[in-house]
């Protein structure tokens, strides 16, 4: 399981011109689910995302997590993160989980994080989404669960 996190000043996701998820200051998480991922992978990644210290403290050091700064979390499914790009000029998606399994784990992630954190928004699994954001820093990290 892969999670690309970006520290953002704001972010939102639209489907068919309608805003379906929006946060102010916080983390945009692009979530890629791979073949073989399980609920254990979700749990590990979810813990990392919520606890990862990417926000500045009083000295400007990255020492604070999203909860400590009162930020939001916007979760967007992103199967292209699981692409194999090592060979050729066209991505291979054989390492991405099948849509049924990926949707199950995506929904598990959303449900679990909503019980643990008060400010969560999300996109719609499998939809054609337009994501807008202002990357703060820029600060971007690829996490594995």
TrEMBL record:
CDD domains with a match to the protein in the record: Dtyr_deacylase (cd00563)
Iron recorded as keyword: no
Catalytic activity, EC: 3.1.1.96, 3.1.1.-
UniProt KW keywords: Cytoplasm, Hydrolase, RNA-binding, tRNA-binding
Gene3D superfamilies noted in UniProt: D-tyrosyl-tRNA(Tyr) deacylase
Predominant subcellular localization, coarse grouping: cytoplasm
Domain of life: Bacteria
GO cellular component, one term: cytoplasm
One biological process term in Gene Ontology: D-amino acid catabolic process
Catalytic activity entry: glycyl-tRNA(Ala) + H2O = tRNA(Ala) + glycine + H(+); a D-aminoacyl-tRNA + H2O = a tRNA + a D-alpha-amino acid + H(+)
GO molecular function: D-tyrosyl-tRNA(Tyr) deacylase activity; Gly-tRNA(Ala) deacylase activity; Ser(Gly)-tRNA(Ala) hydrolase activity; tRNA binding
EC class: hydrolase
Keyword Flavoprotein attributed: no
Localization in the cell: Cytoplasm
Pfam (any one): Tyr_Deacylase
Positions of short motif Gly-cisPro motif, important for rejection of L-amino acids: 137-138
Physiological role: An aminoacyl-tRNA editing enzyme that deacylates mischarged D-aminoacyl-tRNAs. Also deacylates mischarged glycyl-tRNA(Ala), protecting cells against glycine mischarging by AlaRS. Acts via tRNA-based rather than protein-based catalysis; rejects L-amino acids rather than detecting D-amino acids in the active site. By recycling D-aminoacyl-tRNA to D-amino acids and free tRNA molecules, this enzyme counteracts the toxicity associated with the formation of D-aminoacyl-tRNA entities in vivo and helps enforce protein L-homochirality.
Family assignment from sequence similarity: Belongs to the DTD family.
Free-text note regarding domains: A Gly-cisPro motif from one monomer fits into the active site of the other monomer to allow specific chiral rejection of L-amino acids.
NCBIfam families with a match to the protein in the record: D-aminoacyl-tRNA deacylase
Subunit structure: Homodimer.
Protein name, UniProt field: D-aminoacyl-tRNA deacylase
Gene name in the database record: dtd
């Amino acid at each position: 399981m892969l999670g690309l996190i970006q520290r953002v000043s704001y972010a939102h996701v639209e489907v068919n011109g309608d805003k379906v998820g929006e946060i102010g200051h916080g983390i945009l998480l692009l979530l890629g689910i791979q073949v073989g991922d399980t609920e254990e992978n979700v749990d590990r990644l979810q813990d990392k995302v919520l606890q990862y210290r990417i926000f500045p403290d009083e000295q400007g050091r990255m020492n604070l997590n999203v909860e400590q700064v009162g930020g939001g979390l916007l979760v967007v499914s992103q199967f292209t993160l699981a692409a194999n790009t090592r060979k050729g000029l066209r991505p291979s998606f054989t390492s991405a989980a099948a849509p049924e399994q990926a949707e199950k784990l995506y929904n598990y992630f959303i449900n679990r994080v909503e019980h643990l954190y008060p400010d969560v928004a999300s996109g719609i699994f499998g939809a054609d989404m337009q994501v807008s954001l202002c990357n703060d820093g820029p600060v971007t990290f690829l996490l594995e669960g």
